[in-house]
Amino acid sequence: MSMVLPGVVGFKLLGKLRDGVTATDLVLTVTQMLRKHGVVGKFVEFYGEGMGKLSLADPATIANMSPDYGATMGFFPVAHLTLQYLQLTGRSDETIAMIESYLRTNKMFVDYNEPQIEKVYSSYLELKLEDVELCISGPKRDDEDDSVAKMKVAEEALEAKQKVTNSLSATCPFFYLSCFIIL
Predict the structure, then answer these.
(1) Coil, helix or strand for 1?
(2) How far apart are CA 17 and CA 121, in angstroms?
(3) Which of 11, 12, 23, 59 has the least C-beta neighbours within 10 A?
(4) Tell me, what's the pLDDT at 52?
(5) Which distant-in-sequence residues (6+ apart) come within 8 Å of 54 by Cβ?
(6) CA gap 97, 166 in Å, rounded
(7) Helix, strand or coil for residue 69?
(8) Per-residue confidence at 78, pLDDT binned at 50, 70, 90?
(9) DSSP states of 147-176 as a string?
């Protein structure tokens, strides 16, 4: 039986998000880049040293947006955030240690504090996280209302980010695909 394999786009993340930049700002930037690149029917694998500086909510938000940028899936390798997620969802230290050991033994765990082997992808994209701008959408307001509007949007973004973080344990079917087998 033959099967057509999808293209895999390697999306390299470098650096660190600036203070005040939210997961929403990041995902809107990533979505724009991926739409422009054309990823319909493809897998997108995120990698790079910037991955080690993302919050728990950032990969979750980006992966959940794969229908919006058109990819079949957005994949984040199993890493320390996976272990953090397992801890936050009540897994025992022994279980987490066993999972980490299994993943490392089978070369399925990525430690962003160690040198990484460059992989081969169908195509490549790169984003310096410090270049991500605050994204405020909606109608243009006059100058005196603008600062109030920006403050409200920032507060809403912070609340949304907290909700994503709090709900990861209940709604996380995408979160680190490799873990579902051993959980």
Answers:
(1) coil
(2) 25
(3) 12
(4) 92
(5) 13, 17, 81
(6) 23
(7) helix
(8) very high
(9) HHHHHHHHHHHHHHHHHHHHHTTTS-TTTT
Q: Which tens digits make up the pLDDT trace of 91-121?
A: 999 999 999 999 999 999 999 888 888 899 9
Residue in the block written with tokens 């490799």: 178
Question: pLDDT digits over 49-65, tens only?
Answer: 999 999 988 998 899 89
Report the distance separating Cα 166 and Cα 164, nearest Å. Answer: 5
CA distance 143 to 78: 45
Q: How far is CA 153 from CA 25, 65, 130, 148, in A?
A: 11, 20, 20, 9
d(CA 134, CA 153): 10
> For residue range 114-159, what is the model confidence (pLDDT) as tens digits?
888 889 999 999 999 999 999 875 334 344 455 555 666 666 666 6
Within its chain, how far is the Cα of 27 from the centroid? 8
